[in-house]
């Protein structure tokens, strides 16, 4: 697989992490399982269905030409052929509400057709284009959406905060709002509660650590990420990945857009 990231224009960087492309030409693999875990970063995904077969979701339905993937709090599975071409946007957690003017909790754990969220012909505009041309199209599309933005800078400051998010009561006090206000504003912008966001963030850190260490270091990872103990770590990992840390390490991904995905050949 060939994976590449592209940088958005500067005026989008507080809402767009990067654009990405993922191309596979493995015709020998008739079917790939896409294991998607809990993920705090929403996405826009365009798939080239003119030259390749579409992604099939867990209920057997074809995914749209261009669709959004909201913040995920539970694992999902989809399937596709080993030959494909995908292009997408990796957003920051609060981006969808700002670009599309809806409460993000309406998009949590959903994958709606982009045309159901906004009236646009984005999917058609991305067809028969190079990835570089798609970057320019999306820069223009998202920049146009920014004219209607009303950013919540309190939520944005949490999203872009480096390191661990502090205690909720202390955080609300520092921002000079009530804890209840903080919770309500955060969920409206991001789609999940701040507490759940913190748990998913910690799970994502665990995925990255497991990708670079041996399974025998599980206890040290649990301690490092402030889990109560190894048992607590394994239980929460299974909740968000529907597999144990051991099985995650054992599975060999043939390529992924982030550590929150596994692409596993089905023989």
Automatic annotation (TrEMBL):
HTH araC/xylS-type domain spans which residues?
A: 168-251
Give the InterPro entries listed for this entry. Answer: AraC_XylS_family_regulators (IPR050204), DUF6597 (IPR046532), Homeodomain-like_sf (IPR009057), HTH_AraC (IPR018060)
GO molecular function terms attached to this record? DNA-binding transcription factor activity; sequence-specific DNA binding
Question: Which PANTHER family has this protein been placed in?
Answer: HTH-TYPE TRANSCRIPTIONAL ACTIVATOR RHAS, HTH-TYPE TRANSCRIPTIONAL ACTIVATOR RHAS-RELATED
Q: Does the keyword Transcription apply?
A: yes
What's the superkingdom here?
A: Bacteria
Protein name per Swiss-Prot or TrEMBL: Helix-turn-helix transcriptional regulator
Record has Thylakoid as a keyword = no
Pfam families given for it? DUF6597, HTH_18
Query: Where does this protein come from, organism-wise?
Result: Rhodocytophaga rosea
Keyword annotations: DNA-binding, Transcription, Transcription regulation
């Amino acid at each position: 697989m060939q994976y590449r990231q592209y940088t958005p224009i500067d005026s989008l960087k507080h809402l767009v992490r990067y654009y990405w492309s993922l191309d596979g030409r493995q015709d020998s693999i008739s079917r790939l399982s896409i294991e998607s875990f809990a993920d705090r970063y929403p996405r826009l995904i365009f798939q080239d269905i003119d030259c390749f077969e579409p992604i099939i979701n867990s209920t057997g339905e074809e995914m749209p030409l261009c669709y959004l993937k909201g913040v995920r709090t539970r694992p999902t599975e989809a399937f596709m052929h080993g030959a494909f071409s995908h292009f997408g946007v990796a957003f920051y957690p609060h981006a969808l509400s700002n670009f599309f003017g809806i409460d993000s909790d309406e998009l949590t754990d959903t994958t709606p057709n982009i045309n159901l969220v906004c009236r646009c012909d984005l999917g058609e505009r991305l067809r028969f284009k190079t990835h570089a041309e798609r970057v320019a199209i999306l820069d223009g599309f998202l920049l146009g959406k920014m004219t209607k933005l009303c950013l919540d800078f309190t939520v944005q400051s949490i999203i872009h905060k480096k390191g661990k998010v502090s205690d909720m009561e202390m955080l609300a006090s520092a921002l000079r709002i009530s804890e209840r206000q903080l919770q309500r504003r955060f969920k409206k912008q991001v789609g999940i509660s701040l507490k759940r966001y913190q748990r998913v963030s910690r799970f994502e850190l665990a995925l990255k650590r497991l990708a670079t260490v041996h399974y025998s270091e599980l206890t040290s990872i649990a301690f490092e990420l402030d889990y109560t103990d190894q048992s607590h770590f394994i239980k929460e990992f299974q909740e968000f990945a529907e597999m144990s840390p051991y099985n995650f390490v054992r599975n060999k991904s043939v390529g992924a857009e982030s550590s929150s995905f596994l692409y596993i050949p089905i023989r």
